[in-house]
Amino acid sequence: MPLQQKLVTIGAAVLVLVVIFELVRKRKLREEYSWLWLLAGVAIGAVALTPFRFLVAFSSRVLGSENPPAAIFFLGFVAVTLLCLQFSVRLSRMTEQVKNLGQKIGILEAQLRMQHTLPVDPSLEEVDVLVEDSASDARPLPESPPALEDTTAES
Amino acid sequence: MIPPMSDPAPTPTKRNGLAIMPAYNESGQITGVIKSLRKAAPEFDILVVDDGSRDHTAAEALAAGAMVVRHPFNMGYGAALQTGYKFAASSPRHYDVLVQLDADGQHDPKYIYPLADRVLSGEVDVCVGSRFLVGGGYIPPFARRVGMVLFGYIASVVTRRRVTDPTSGYQALGRRVFEYFQLDLFPADYPDADVLILLHRAGFRAEEQPVEMQKNPIGQSMHGGVIRPLFYVFKMFLSIFVTLLREPPPPPPSAR
């Protein structure tokens, strides 16, 4: 590996590591996510360092590649793809959690409004008649509101 | 319980039901829809699930006398339906039956009782209103019809009953069903043939009854554009496929 390429690679690895530590320090990246990125930075650096040269040769031999750099690119690409997949999974789970939270907030808000314990929401005041009209036709709730016990039991 | 007013002795067949309407930016129409619904089904409570509308849908629905649950942001038609199911299941009124219909006036409310009564009779758990069992009425555009026929056919084969209108949002659900639908696997976008198949595999009984539907007066369809129909077909195939692959979670016991 030419010296210039080596320097660029090590420089890139150091940059990645510094940025990650800085993000964690500023609490923009949670520690639990940072280890993967730190690993990525270390891996970039390892490619350039002589003691780890055998990894490049070894991986290209295993993959049957005649071109060692191509093998490295391939492995890196696979790793990044898996990482993205992992994020998609997390994102799906969070979407579900946010949906459940939004639903629960809406229902709790409606239950409070029906028990007249919720301060009037200014965004609902744009239509004047709402308070007296909304109460008149609905059947009254039982005196003791069992709604809260119900919600906890159900969910 | 305090009786609301001097009610005549409740008939033994008094329906303890809730009508739910997912609504998104339905300001201007929602009042009329609620009024006609109240006239057609006076025994039912009405819940409007406002899916994060940016207009006065929630305020107008409250003013028209409906109960309103508001999503803090837009989450999709299926999520709004599920909010209604969760509301009904946790309500102190112990609804026996729930009828869902669209807030845009597409569904004629005179079918609420016929659909609900099928469920209350105990013969079925779900009664879906199909627009294709009666002649005439609104026929959706060709591209959409192809999807309906295709997925209706697949659902018919899997559930071994005739499914003519898998996309119908006009349905009556028994208590066990809307308790079951609180599971996270209920789709947040558009429940379709995949949900019918899920119900069948979980052991619920479903059927179709004829209803009339009008064309959406605004004309904005959920399957508009070019990308969305393609995505819909892809998503439905995938959804049906994985629904068939996974073991359905068992329904809750039939006791209330």
Question: Can you tell me about this structure?
Answer:
The complex is a heterodimer of chains A (155) and B (256). Chain A is mainly α and 155 residues long. Helices cover 74% and strands 0% of the residues of chain A. The longest helix of chain A is centred in the middle third of the chain and has 47 residues, at 68-114. Chain A is elongated. Chain A starts with a helix and ends with a helix. The relative contact order of chain A is 0.05. The model of chain A is unreliable at 128-155 (pLDDT under 50). Mean pLDDT of chain B is 85; it is low at 3-12. Chain B has eight helices and seven strands. Helix content of chain B is 36%, strand content 14%. In chain B, helix 5 (142-159) runs parallel beside helix 7 and helix 7 (193-201) packs parallel to helix 8. In chain B, helix 1 links the parallel strand 1 and strand 2 (45-50). By secondary structure, chain B is α/β, with parallel strands linked by helices. Chain B has a seven-stranded mixed β-sheet, with helices on both faces. The A-B interface holds A 95-96, 99-100, 102-107, 109-110, 113-114, 123-130, 133-134, 136-143, 145-147, 150-151, 154-155 and B 1-2, 4, 38, 45, 49, 56, 58-60, 62-73, 75, 79, 82-83, 86-87, 89-93, 179, 182, 184, 188.
